[in-house]
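User: structure tokens for this one?
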Amino acid sequence: MVQAFDQYVDERHEVLGAGGSDFLLVNLFREPLGAPMPPDALGELFERLSQRAGLSRKVGPHMARRAFGSNVADAGGSADEVQALLGQTHPESPRPYLIPDRARLREAIERVPSPRSLHGTVEK
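Assistant:
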């Protein structure tokens, strides 16, 4: 994945030059060059890459969006940060993207004290 991203960055620099674009995924092979990649082109790209990688299930742009939102939250990002980064306007919009990491859930469980320890009746 890192190698593919590095290749994309190199190709992007060749096509757009140093100025580039504020958008991550831009047209490199269709007009207008450097414009944000439209949803249909992004869907085609994901389909081609999924086939090329030999994945057993279809991976789409929305899955990447969900993963990004979850990763921001798992890294300590707040719901309003996820909302802003995903370009959403309604405060409840990021909720489906906030899928907690299993390790983070386990840590949350471990932070809850045992009722026995709270009442001084620890088993021996």
